[in-house]
Design brief:
The protein is an alpha/beta fold. The protein is built from seven helices and seven strands, in the order ββαβαβαβααβαβα. It is globular. It starts with 8 loop residues before the first strand and ends in a 10-residue tail after the last helix.
């Protein structure tokens, strides 16, 4: 007997029929960094995430950003979910962008929050990618299940290759909040910010005094919420055309 695969949408917090805030994960597909954020956003929204493909046994990763966005869109349509706000961090920012462009084609313009992501091809060294890979697998804990670690590593490798070939080329007409981190030594941010501004006529920008992987930590989360919560405080009708 064939076991059905788990769905791609993962409810993180749900209370009644409130607006949906959709979260797109970073490279590796882990949702753990979003748990504290979901608890805070859940005061006004139902919070749902999209699980990356390839994290369950027998499932293949998606190989480019368009495929990732189409997979997320298909999961939303199958569940009848129409998000009123979308947030993507890192790789998730690029997936969120491509998803929202497709939602706009269907007459829906959710508020979009981009956290330390880029619309441009990712340039890196083998050493950098190995370090990031180790960091992300390390988030599984000190003694992760070997099969789980192997799947996360394979998803990460596929996503990094996809980012190296990605360049956003379609404008998004909805409201966009771009938040760039100030920590670490990642040199992509100024060029990435300029690229988002060219594509988003309704973009507002901001900075977060945190490193890329620390932005959701308890000591930094309040500044993220101070930017995001007022930005998405709109009614359902405001995001529909």
């Amino acid at each position: 007997m064939t076991t059905a695969q788990p769905g791609r949408l993962v409810p993180l917090l749900r209370r009644g029929s409130r607006p949906t805030f959709l979260l797109l994960p970073g490279a590796g597909g882990g949702l753990h960094p979003y748990l504290r954020l979901a608890a805070a956003l859940g005061q006004n929204h139902n919070v749902t995430a999209v699980r990356a493909a390839g994290l369950v046994p027998g499932e293949e990763p998606e190989h480019d950003l368009a495929e990732m966005a189409e997979g997320a869109l298909r999961a939303l349509e199958e569940s009848g979910t129409v998000p009123e706000a979308v947030l993507g961090w890192s790789l998730g920012g690029a997936v969120a962008w491509e998803l929202c462009v497709r939602l706009a084609d269907r007459g829906h313009r959710p508020d979009l929050v981009l956290v330390d992501g880029s619309p441009l091809p990712r340039h890196s060294t083998v050493e950098e990618d190995q370090g990031l890979r180790a960091t992300i697998i390390g988030m599984l804990g000190p003694r992760p299940d070997p099969a789980t670690a192997e799947r996360v590593g394979r998803v990460f490798d596929t996503q990094v290759a996809a980012l190296a070939a990605y360049r956003a080329d379609r404008a998004y007409p909805g409201r966009v909040l771009m938040l760039m981190c100030e920590g670490d030594d990642m040199a992509f941010r100024d060029e990435a910010a300029a690229g988002w501004r060219e594509l988003a006529p309704q973009l507002r920008g901001g900075r977060l005094a945190a490193g890329h992987f620390a932005v959701f930590d308890p000591e930094h989360l309040p500044q993220l919420l101070d930017a995001v919560v007022p930005f998405v405080g709109r009614t359902s009708e405001a995001v529909r055309q």
